[in-house]
Design a protein that fits this description.
By secondary structure, the chain is of the alpha/beta class. The chain contains seven helices and nine strands; from the N terminus they run αααβββααββββαββα. Strand 6 and strand 7 form a beta hairpin. The structure holds 2-acetamido-2-deoxy-beta-D-glucopyranose (2 copies) and zinc ion.
Length: about 280
């Protein structure tokens, strides 16, 4: 019932997005506003996933080809529009009998040797603290196709066939971004869309770029008994998609709390992977 509601809601969102022709302009205006915000709130060398992704994606609009729609950095096919994959088993990657979860990928030769080595070593960071094992595809049907497309984007959860993960050479080849997009591919949504977010952040609709309000819609996420985490690599910064340089995401009750500055997966991000995928021996 709730699922149906969310689905209907998202389909409505999709249709309204399809109908908007000024979407690209909206993203371009976001860029200016991010820069206004940067004077006080971002450092020059800000390596947080949020800043890097919003910067790399600033010129991305909604792509209508291949019926692909972007929600910030989440790519969605209409038939997979349910962005809450954790409610169903379909979006999870299968667990092998040895307890590991093997996720096949191919990586484009658009990257320099150094970029490829970096990306692949960042994929291996998951093996240190979780049962996720990214490995080079050997004929598997469902796999991540990592390419330098436009911006930093990923589908949420396993799509059952080739699924694009775009890590543009122009701004996405960073540890925080790679971990963020892989967390999407593993089935995780943005922190600020969590079902319990209203207890931790206030969304200031009046400051959101018109037409992008849907990116802040709450999702009926499974929170796996982990707390809301301002330091999650999935948390966007307080000026995300601002129309006017004013905050769009305000932490509450402490409005000055630091949010969206994670430069790598937080202990909570790791815990959630281990809970969602039931990684044994790593539950604590
Ligand atoms: C990965 O995506 C690129 C770009 O769309 C495409 O050219 C390539 O064939 C894909 N690779 C595989 C193995 O599907
Ligand atoms: C999780 O792992 C435990 C112990 O390995 C097992 O008993 C349990 O059935 C698993 N649960 C799921 C949902 O896979
Ligand atoms: Zn994202």
């Amino acid at each position: 019932m709730a699922l149906l509601f969310v689905l209907t809601l998202l389909i409505t969102v999709f249709c309204s997005v399809q109908g908007r022709s000024f979407q690209k302009t909206s993203f371009e205006m976001t860029e200016e506003n991010m820069e206004i915000g940067s004077t006080n709130n971002f450092e020059e060398d800000d390596q947080s996933a949020s800043s890097l992704i919003l910067k790399a994606n600033r010129n991305l609009g909604q792509r209508h080809d291949e019926t692909l729609v972007l929600f910030g950095d989440i790519a969605v096919h209409p038939k997979f529009i349910n962005a809450d994959p954790c409610t169903s088993r379909d979006c999870k990657w299968p667990k092998s009998s040895d307890g590991n979860v093997y996720v096949p990928y191919v990586i484009s030769n658009q990257y320099s040797m150094r970029e490829r080595l970096n990306i692949e070593s960042w994929l291996q960071t998951f093996a240190k603290s979780t049962c996720i094992r990214f490995f080079r595809r050997r004929g598997q049907q469902a796999f991540l196709n990592i390419t330098s497309g436009s911006g930093c984007t990923s589908y949420v959860g396993r799509q059952g066939k080739a699924q694009q993960v775009s890590l543009s050479r122009n701004g996405c080849v960073h540890l925080s971004v790679v971990q963020h997009e892989m967390l999407h591919a593993l089935g995780f949504d943005h922190e600020q869309t969590r079902s319990d977010r209203d207890n931790h952040v206030q969304i200031l609709i009046q400051n959101i770029q018109p037409g992008l309000e849907f990116a802040f819609r709450k999702i009926n996420t499974i929170n796996l008994n982990t707390p809301y985490d301002y330091n999650s690599v999935m948390q966007y910064g307080r000026f995300a998609f601002s129309r006017n340089g004013q905050p769009t995401i305000l932490p509450i009750p402490d409005n000055n709390a630091v949010i969206g500055r994670a430069t790598e997966m937080s202990p909570n991000d790791i815990l959630r992977i281990n809970r969602l995928y039931n990684c044994s021996g790593q539950q604590e």
